Amino acid sequence: MIDREGVEHELEGEVGWSLMEVIREAGLPIEAACGGCCACATCHVYVEPEWLPRLEEPCEDENMMLDEAFEVRDNSRLSCQIRLTEELEGIRVVLAPEF
Amino acid sequence: MSSEPVRTDLVIVGAGPVGLFAVFEAGLLGMSCHLVDNLDRPGGQCAELYPEKPIYDIPAVPVCTGQELVDRLMQQIRPFEPTFHFRQQAERLERIEKGWRVTTSAGTVFEAPAVVIAAGAGSFVPRRMPLPEASSFEDRSLFYVVRRREDFRGRNILVAGGGDSALDWLLELEPLAGELAIVHRRKDFRAKPDSVERMRGLIEAGRIRMHIGQIVGLEGVDGRLKAVRIRNPEGEIRHPCDTVLAFYGLKMELGPIADWGLELEGSHIKVDTATFETNLPGVFAVGDICTYPGKLKLILSGFHETALMSHKAFTYCFPEKRLVFRHTTSSSDLRKKLGVA
Ligand SMILES: Cc1cc2nc3c(=O)[nH]c(=O)nc-3n(C[C@H](O)[C@H](O)[C@H](O)COP(=O)(O)OP(=O)(O)OC[C@H]3O[C@@H](n4cnc5c(N)ncnc54)[C@H](O)[C@@H]3O)c2cc1C
Ligand code: FES
Fold first, then answer.
1. Is B248 close to A97, i.e. CB distance below 8 A?
2. Planar angle of CA B47, A56, A27, nearest 5 degrees
3. Which of B37, B169, B254, B328 is the most buried (most CB within 10 A)?
4. Which ipTM was obtained for this model?
5. Structural domain total, chain B
6. What is the CATH number of domain A19-95?
7. Interface touch B130/A72, C-beta < 8 Å
8. Could you report the per-residue pLDDT of B125-143, keeping only the tens digit for each?
């Protein structure tokens, strides 16, 4: 995970956790105001393009919340909606700006 | 704007699920309540953030949605006749001889022996535009709420957002705006279908210009906006306009409560877990806003907290009375109120 200052962190989580939980449990600055319920968009991250195809498409709920986020790009996702699986070992994301 | 103060037993700041249930627990002990919330309806997070999502951990209710929970709480507290003061923020808390005075942003003044803060994660307020130049335009050219429609007459307006608030205001201001445009991240809108239809009609008729993209910059001098830069998939464009109405949803902020002299831990209020009283005597905090060792932000926990709070608040409201603990099953007062006695 790359934070807002561009510093890289290597994080570990367990299969079944969400990416947001991994980032939050590591004590890194992710607001995640709604606690992972796809209701706040404060867990917004940019997924490195090569990892995008390996993720499931965002659901309508996630897209709706992304509408309220700022600086949304093609590789924008809500990290609470990304579940860790074995295949996602090594996924790289960048934390989106806070607002 | 001040008027005669409202005198009551308890003033509850926040009409989320916990504030609502506090009415019940207080009512059982004979205390009546006034509630203040800056939203326009009861329910706090449940109604604002997840009305349609299911909740599974309310005891004896295997499943209900956020809104259903709120509706049922409203039904449960109706016998106690709480009074709601919506669309206003509790701004000031002052010590008076017989308790506390609470003043809201709408100028309502309450005087009560005890105050209950059930403010959740704080007030819901509109999210601001996170551009460095945004603050210099706020309240002159950049707005997050519409206070008076007339202020927007003849202005060249760009509305940002794709939800109900964005579309409602777009359509509402259409008859009086000068040029009108909307910018949204994608083609799909998640607003009410008939609003989307009406907007599409006005776009086709050439009345509203539609931009797919996002605002990346504001241009102007002295808070007067000249143009907005919008990034779209093809690159960047400049859209001339003098007013932006931005709807990026709501976020929660502790707000004025931070200055009330309460002992805080981060943005939470410290309480005594026997009574849920804060460091200020007669001021209580329950629900998500309070903190103590082991605190969990659950509705369940909030409900429990209101029961203990009520027992202590009783001693401020009726210092001369003795409190007898009774189950609702055998409370004749309650049964009378419910009309089942
Ligand atoms: C998506 C989501 C799912 C959840 N799921 C569950 C679940 O399954 N089970 C569970 O137990 N919990 C769940 N929660 C948590 C639960 O919603 C909260 O614990 C609960 O809403 C807290 O209630 P509250 O009354 O303390 O505060 P809130 O619901 O936050 O309400 C506080 C109210 O106070 C108002 N307010 C604050 N300050 C002021 C002021 N100065 N003046 C006027 N008004 C003010 C606010 O506008 C707000 O309406 C969930 C939360 C979210 C976001
Ligand atoms: S944590 Fe709120 S949307 Fe992900």
1. no
2. 65
3. B37
4. 0.72
5. 2
6. 3.10.20.30
7. no
8. 888 888 899 999 999 999 9
